[in-house]
Write a structure and sequence with these properties.
4 helices; alpha+beta; 31% strand; 21% helix; 207 residues
């Protein structure tokens, strides 16, 4: 069973680990018969879509659960009403048909003061946008963001863009926003970040 939810307002500051704990408690509070793993330390079977960075609003987040007994999706949706804390909003419940392994990209929106619109155009027009990304074992590697993002629309303080967000390659959206802040030399530049869609390898919406 797949649950689609939004993580917004104050909930966007909840870490992924805390989200996992919150989901477990909320499902238990709602009386959802979630399957528990076997072994010395049983825990509810929960599988999330790629983690959302702290501070980023998610409008397309996904959670797969396994049930101990069959239930209709609408029944699960009704049971989940008001069980999650403020800021986590359950949107849909449905039978999953695609594996999270098929997620390859994510679509984001970024908002910033409109007076920086021209600066943003200059920023993405650079030949290279080199940043450091944390790799495995705490190492840092340099990547060229210019080779990674795809701008879909931009103008008047709002930009919609795509970044890799899969198992093979995942570019954190914070790298993009921090690179822009660094370009305009305004560390406290207010920026709003939203993840609005997951995409497959063909850049079609994943659900």
């Amino acid at each position: 069973m797949r649950i689609r939810f939004a993580k917004k307002d104050s909930a966007r500051f909840i870490s992924h680990l805390d989200l996992v704990r919150t989901a477990g408690r909320s499902l238990k509070r709602a009386g959802i018969p979630v399957y528990y793993t076997q072994g010395f330390n049983p825990h509810p079977y929960l599988v999330f879509s790629p983690p959302l960075p702290v501070g980023v609003t998610g409008l397309c987040e996904l959670l797969d659960i396994r049930l101990d007994r069959p239930l209709f999706p609408q029944s699960v949706l009704d049971m989940l009403k008001d069980s999650f804390p403020a800021g986590i909003e359950v949107q849909r419940v449905y039978e999953e048909v695609r594996s999270f392994n098929e997620i390859a990209y994510a679509r984001y929106q970024m908002y910033f003061p409109s007076e920086y619109t021209e600066k943003f155009s200059e920023f993405i027009a650079q030949d290279h946008i080199c940043v450091e990304k944390r790799a495995k074992k705490g190492r840092f590697v340099q990547i060229d963001l210019k080779q990674e993002f795809e701008i879909e629309t931009a103008g008047d303080g709002k930009v919609t863009f795509i970044l890799p967000c899969g198992n093979e390659k995942n570019i954190g959206v914070a790298l993009f926003s921090e690179a822009f802040r660094g370009y305009v030399c305004v560390p406290e530049l207010p920026v709003g970040l939203f993840r609005i869609d997951f995409l497959d390898s063909a850049k079609k919406i994943f659900e």
